Every structure is written in structure tokens, then in C-alpha cells.
């Protein structure tokens, strides 16, 4: 084909496109097929006019379809708006016929909670009908519909599972929900999965299983066996496009053009038979990371410091095994397992901006080991155990981890990403060794490595983990990667604190951190952290964390100190409940740290009053949590149980959704400790060992047996 023919075809193709999109915006040059689409675009994007007005509340809107949805739920207009919705939230969400009963036939058949966010006149209103009435319209935005479809601040339909109504962080008023009982909580929201734990009000099924089992997949929430196998099937090489699977496609052309020499993998062969390197490796950008990991493993195996946990001896066979386990195709597969199966449990790595090619090889190796450990394939689990100690040594001798660099007071956190990734890798090592390693590895992590991690976090400066007020910035000034780096740091320090409290709860180890040093921001809503583009992230921040939001004023320390007061204002109680599951889990875990301090104090001048206050206020905030969303949709819960698939499993909430069990365990421990306050001082029973140690008597235990016995005792006697 001649160049002239090619040119003519290109021109004809451009002409056909221009004919299809013949209406062009004179302001932003966007093109549309139909005139009405251009008209709607001009009205909604380039003017502040709101030509559509509600005759009931006088609210104005930019689009007619938004007005129609508003009229259906406008207060006091049920008789004027025509047919009103009679279906329950679940049937309405799935567009199924509803019998309008309580519960309806569809929900009864499925065994799901039946909840009506817009009750009929003959139906008793749910307890949260009189929840805070501040709406988007009071902030200059359209009022939200009670349906699952929501709108951005300009009135455009967002229309997907990541779009939610405004949560309670920016609300000023609320009611006192202190009169609600624990069992009533299960009636307040639709079928969000985190509510399932409250069906049995005073049992601890997750914590009983957590303290009985070993291994990451058995202890945490890594999906069902069927879900894990579906993920494994989706990650098979024939189902994965390496180009599309790469997080940053714009780097692909440059990386694949690099001449990767076969000398990088000189001497590679399968054990017992010579086999050449697959040709795909030489065009795969992850092959560079394979080579970097290989060099690091060789270093820690051949140059062992005193007391090194590495016991392997370097040989051609070991080199082959290392290349095979960390091969590009396996790295890609294990990272897929990490995101889908593990990431929801400890979510401090920003997946949308994560780039495996530019990440530190130590972090990549640690993430791969986690992924292989939770894989449904037993050979992956067994192969991973071979490299646990090697990668541990690689991570903790890393220069970025051991440097004395302090974070300056700067608006550019992204320049410190190597240091941040070094801490992330160290944390991941602590996780997999504590749940997958040998008893000696668990003790080493608990006694030495984790202490080193906490010290490094303090060297960086825990108080640096704060956000700028991004809601004050227009889109052009919003730096997505800067927000991501700060949020990663906030979440990393939060999870370090949580691992510290885990050692307190399950190993009876004195805490290394105290809540008073946690002058950090609370974690941002998942809708902001998991937003997959800069535009959508900025949109979510504007929607859920506007400038007047209480979030920008709240720190972990201030929030926990407020919970320890006898009473907190209803508006603050609502703001705490609106922080989401991860932050509520962190606050519940902090109570355990205070219980440990009280239990092991010599002086009895202090009492349990502050702990009781924190328990009561946390419980009230947990009860209010469902009212921070409509129809069971929340900026903190992006995927419902019945909508999970391999592509969106990384967006679900992990084990921290069982935070109510952590609260209940703390409450039961406080009850047990209260025996010291009620027993008379001259009672002979004070000499009893069971009274001197009413909870846990053995310290720094590798096994969680004594905690499991305590939980089983609580459940047996229903204290």
C-alpha cells in the first residue's frame, strides 16, 4: 500500500469521526454526536445557571433528570410526587419485585436484612429517620436521592459502585443515639457484610478462629476458597496481558526498548536439565526486578552477618530456584494475589498509583511472598517459605530503612517514597513472619524487628503523617501523588500502631507505642484512597471531605482523648462514627492498650473510668455508623458481599470490619478487671492467683493459646 493510499485512508477516517461528532463545544473543544448533548454539556459545565426548580422546596438544579429524582424524595411531597417507592433497599438495588412487607419475601428467601430507607406511612419508621438532616443542597449541591445512584457536586450522575452520598464528617447536628441497644444495630442498614458479625450479639467467632489458627489465609479474611481459586484462574498467564497488567502503561514502551542482556540470567537452567531463558523475559519490564532481587538474595546468602536468620548456601540450584520463584510471570501472579486476597486486610499501599517496575525490589519481594503465602495453590505456599528469612534480611539491612533521614516540613512527600517503601517492606516482613514463619522467626520479629520498625517510624517523625486541606484546592492545584504519599504514610503509621496493639492483645507483650504520640490524621475514606484517577480522587475529596468537614481538625490522639471523656457532643459522636471501619478499628484497639496499662499498674489510685468512657462512647459511635450512609452505601464500603469478583476484590474491607468483636473483648476484659474494685481489701481471695491475674498471666507468648482460652471462657459463661 502506497503512502498516498495510507494518507487518504487516514483523512477519510478523520472525516468519518468528525461527521459522527459534528457538534463541538467552543469553550473546551469537546465533541458530541447530538445537539442536545452539547446543550446539556454547556449548561452543566460552563455556566452556573440552575434552570430547573423544585416547586416544593424551591431548590434549583442544572439538569431536569436530577430534579425528577429529587422530587421523588423531597420532604413532605410523597402525595404530590405520584407513585412512591414501596420496595425495600435490597430489592430496589437489584431491581427485583418486592412484597413491601417487613421483611419482604425476597429478603426472607435470601436470608438478607430487609431495610426501608423511605418508609411508607403504614410502616414504623426506623430509628435513624431523624438522623442529621444536613444535605448537599445546604452546601450548594443537589440533595441526594435515596436510591443507590448519587451525584457529584455539579449535579452529574456518577452512577457506579464508588459513588456515594455525603457522609457525616461534615455534619453539624445529630441526635443522641445512646438509647439504642446493641441488637437493634443489625436493623439499621442493608446487607453490608460487616453487619453479619452482630447477628450473635455476644459471641466472638472471628477472634476465636483468629487465635486458634495459624497462617495468613487461615487467620485473616483472604476470601473463600472458591473466591481464591477464581482469582488464581484469572491470573493464569493466558488470561493476563502483561502490557495491560503493568500499572503504568506509559513506561512500557521505554522499558521494552531497553536491551536486556541474557548475561543477567547467565547460568539459569532447570535442575537436572538445561533449558534456555524464555524469550518473553527479555521484553518483560519486570525481568529487571527479577535480576535485582536475585542479586540481593545472593548478597544475604553469601555474606551472612553474625546471628543471621539465613541458613541457605549459595549454589547454581539455589540460583535457579530464586530466578524461578521471582520470575516476571510469578511476580505478576503473586502481586495479583497480594492485591485481591491480602491488600484489603492491611491497606496501606496505594494500588492505583503503585508501579511495580519503579518500586524498590525489597518491597516487591516482600509483597510477592505475601501473595504466594495466601495463594490457593499449595506449591506456592511451600515455595514461599524457602525465601522468608532471605527477604527479611534484605529488607532490614536496606540503606533506606537504616538511614537517619528525617522528613522535613515540606509539601512534597513524594521525594521520600524510597524511605516510605522501605518501611512498608519492613512491615510486610513482620506480618508474614509472625503468621507464616517458625516460632523462632515469630519471636525475632516480635522482640527485635518490630522494635526496629517503630524506631525508624519515630526517626521519620510520626507527626509528619498529616494531610494538607485538599478540599481547598481546585483541580489544577491538586497533586494526586502527593495525596497518595501522605495517605500511605498515615495508614502505615496507623497499621504500625495496630500491630503493636495486636502484640498486646494476642501475645500479652507490653506496648511499644502510646496513643499520645499519634498526632496524625485519621485515614481518609476508602472512596478517596481507592479512586483510580486523579480527577475522581479530587471529586471524592470535594464530595466527602469539604472544607467545613470535621475531618481536617481530627487527629488520632484528639479523637481517642475525646472518647475517654464521660460524654461527647452528639455532633462529635457522629463525626467519629463517620470516620469509617478502619479508624473505628484503630480506636477500639487503642482501648486494649489502655487496659494492659491498667492491668499491669502497681498503684490502684487510677480506676477504669476512662476506659469505661471510651468503651461506651465507641459503642455509641458504632451504633450510629449505619446512619452515615443511605441504603447501605458508604464511602467506606465500596463492594458488597454479593458483588465481589476477582477484579474488585481489592476494594473490599478486610478483617478490621470485625472491630465490634475487638470492642466486645475489651469490654469483657474490663468487666473481669472490675472484680478488683468490688472485692473488699481484706478478702482472703485477694491472695488467689486468679484474682492477681484476672486476664492473662503469661507475657510475651508466641502462642495465642491463653487468649483463645480466655475467649472460649467468655463465650462459655456469657459474662
Task: Characterise the protein shown here.
The protein has 719 residues and is mostly helical. It has a domain at 85-125: CD2-Gal4 (Irregular), CATH 4.10.240.10. It has 30 helices and 4 strands. It has helices spanning 3-20, 35-45, 64-73, 89-94, 105-110, 205-212, 216-219, 225-234, 242-245, 252-256, 286-302, 316-325, 328-342, 361-373, 378-385, 388-396, 399-402, 417-436, 439-460, 480-507, 526-529, 534-544, 556-563, 570-577, 581-599, 609-624, 659-673, 675-678, 689-692, 705-717; strands spanning 23-24, 31-32, 52-53, 60-61. The strands form 2 sheets. It has a two-stranded antiparallel sheet. β3 (52-53) and β4 form a beta hairpin. α23 crosses α26. It starts with a helix and ends with a helix. The model is unreliable at 76-83, 118-201, 243-263 and 267-274 (pLDDT under 50).
Q: Which topology of one domain does CATH recognise?
A: CD2-Gal4
Under CATH, the homologous superfamily of one domain reads Zn(2)-C6 fungal-type DNA-binding domain
Order of the strands making up the biggest sheet: 1-2
Cα radius of gyration in angstroms: 28 Å
Q: How many strands, what sense, and barrel or not for the largest sheet?
A: 2 strands, antiparallel
Structural class comes to mainly alpha
How many strand elements? Answer: 4
Overall 3D form? globular
Overall average residue pLDDT = 77
Strand content: under 5%
Query: Which CATH architecture of one domain is right?
Result: Irregular
Distance between the termini: 84 Å
CATH class of one domain: Few Secondary Structures
Q: Pick out the low-confidence regions.
A: 76-83, 118-201, 243-263, 267-274
Oligomer: single chain
Estimated helix fraction: 40-55%
Count up the helices: 30
Amino acid at each position: 500500500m502506497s503512502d498516498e493510499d495510507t494518507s487518504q485512508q487516514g483523512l477519510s477516517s478523520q472525516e468519518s469521526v468528525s461527521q459522527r461528532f459534528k457538534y463541538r463545544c467552543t469553550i473546551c473543544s469537546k465533541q458530541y454526536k447530538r445537539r442536545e448533548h452539547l446543550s446539556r454539556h454547556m449548561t452543566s459545565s460552563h455556566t452556573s445557571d440552575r434552570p430547573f426548580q423544585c416547586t416544593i422546596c424551591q431548590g434549583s438544579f442544572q439538569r431536569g433528570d436530577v430534579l425528577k429524582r429529587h422530587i421523588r424524595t423531597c420532604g413532605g411531597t410523597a402525595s404530590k410526587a405520584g407513585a412512591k417507592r414501596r420496595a425495600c433497599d435490597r430489592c430496589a438495588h437489584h431491581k427485583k419485585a418486592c412484597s413491601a412487607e417487613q421483611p419482604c419475601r425476597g429478603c426472607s428467601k435470601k436470608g438478607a436484612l430487609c431495610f426501608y430507607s423511605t418508609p411508607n406511612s403504614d410502616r414504623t419508621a426506623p430509628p435513624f429517620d431523624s438522623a442529621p438532616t444536613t444535605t448537599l443542597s445546604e452546601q450548594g449541591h443537589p440533595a441526594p436521592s435515596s436510591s443507590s445512584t448519587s451525584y457529584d457536586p455539579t449535579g452529574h450522575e456518577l452512577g457506579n459502585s464508588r459513588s456515594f452520598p455525603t457522609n457525616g464528617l461534615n455534619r453539624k447536628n445529630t441526635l443522641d443515639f445512646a438509647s439504642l441497644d446493641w441488637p437493634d444495630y443489625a436493623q439499621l442498614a442493608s446487607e453490608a457484610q460487616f453487619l453479619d458479625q452482630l447477628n450473635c450479639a455476644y459471641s466472638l467467632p472471628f477472634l476465636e478462629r483468629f487465635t486458634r489458627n495459624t497462617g495468613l489465609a487461615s487467620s485473616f479474611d483472604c476470601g473463600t476458597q472458591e473466591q481464591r481459586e477464581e482469582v488464581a484462574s484469572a491470573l493464569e498467564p493466558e488470561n493476563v496481558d502483561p502490557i495491560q497488567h503493568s500499572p503504568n502503561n506509559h513506561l512500557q514502551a521505554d522499558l521494552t526498548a531497553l536491551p536486556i542482556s541474557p548475561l543477567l540470567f547467565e547460568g539459569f537452567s532447570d535442575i537436572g536439565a538445561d533449558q534456555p531463558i524464555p524469550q518473553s523475559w527479555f521484553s518483560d519490564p519486570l525481568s529487571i526486578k527479577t535480576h535485582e532481587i536475585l542479586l540481593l538474595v545472593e548478597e544475604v546468602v553469601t555474606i551472612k552477618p553474625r546471628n543471621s536468620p539465613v541458613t541457605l548456601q549459595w549454589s547454581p540450584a539455589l540460583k535457579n530456584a530464586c530466578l524461578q520463584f521471582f520470575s516476571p510471570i510469578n511476580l505478576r501472579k503473586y502481586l495479583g494475589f497480594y492485591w485481591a486476597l491480602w491488600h484489603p486486610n492491611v491497606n496501606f499501599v496505594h494500588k492505583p498509583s503503585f508501579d511495580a517496575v519503579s518500586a524498590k525490589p525489597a518491597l516487591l519481594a516482600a509483597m510477592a511472598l505475601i501473595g504466594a503465602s495466601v495463594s490457593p495453590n499449595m506449591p506456592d505456599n511451600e515455595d514461599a517459605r524457602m525465601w522468608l528469612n532471605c527477604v527479611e534480611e534484605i529488607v532490614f539491612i536496606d540503606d533506606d530503612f537504616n538511614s537517619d533521614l528525617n522528613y522535613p516540613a515540606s509539601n512534597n512527600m513524594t521525594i521520600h517514597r524510597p524511605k516510605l517503601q522501605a518501611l512498608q517492606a519492613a512491615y510486610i516482613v513482620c506480618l508474614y513472619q509472625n503468621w507464616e514463619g517458625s516460632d523462632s522467626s515469630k519471636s525475632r520479629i516480635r522482640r527485635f524487628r518490630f522494635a526496629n520498625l517503630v524506631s525508624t517510624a519515630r526517626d521519620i517523625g510520626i507527626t509528619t503523617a498529616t494531610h494538607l486541606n485538599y478540599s481547598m484546592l481546585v483541580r489544577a492545584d491538586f497533586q494526586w501523588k502527593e495525596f497518595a504519599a501522605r495517605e500511605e504514610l498515615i495508614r502505615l503509621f496507623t497499621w504500625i500502631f495496630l500491630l503493636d496493639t495486636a502484640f498486646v492483645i494476642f501475645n500479652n507483650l507490653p506496648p511499644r507505642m502510646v496513643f499520645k504520640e499519634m498526632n496524625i490524621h485519621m485515614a481518609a475514606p476508602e472512596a478517596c484512597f481507592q479512586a483510580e484517577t486523579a480527577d475522581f480522587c479530587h471529586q471524592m475529596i470535594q464530595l466527602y471531605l469539604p472544607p467545613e468537614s470535621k475531618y481536617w481538625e481530627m487527629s488520632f490522639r484528639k479523637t481517642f482523648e475525646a472518647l475517654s471523656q464521660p460524654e461527647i457532643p452528639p455532633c462529635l459522636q457522629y463525626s467519629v462514627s463517620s470516620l469509617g471501619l478502619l479508624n473505628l478499628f484503630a480506636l477500639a484497639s487503642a482501648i486494649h492498650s489502655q487496659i494492659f496499662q491498667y492491668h499491669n499498674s502497681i498503684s490502684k489510685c487510677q480506676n477504669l473510668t476512662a476506659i469505661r468512657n471510651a468503651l461506651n462512647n465507641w459503642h455509641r459511635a458504632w451504633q450510629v455508623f449505619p446512619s452515615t450512609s443511605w441504603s447501605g452505601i458508604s464511602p467506606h464500603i465500596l463492594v458488597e458481599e454479593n458483588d465481589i469478583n476477582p477484579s474488585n476484590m481489592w476494594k473490599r474491607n478486610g478483617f478490621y470490619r470485625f472491630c465490634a468483636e475487638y470492642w466486645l473483648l475489651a469490654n469483657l476484659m474490663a468487666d473481669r478487671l472490675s472484680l478488683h474494685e468490688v472485692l473488699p481489701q481484706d478478702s482472703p481471695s485477694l491472695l488467689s492467683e486468679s484474682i492477681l491475674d484476672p486476664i492473662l498471666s503469661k507475657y510475651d507468648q508466641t502462642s495465642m493459646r491463653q487468649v483463645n482460652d480466655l475467649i472460649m471462657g467468655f463465650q462459655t459463661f456469657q459474662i
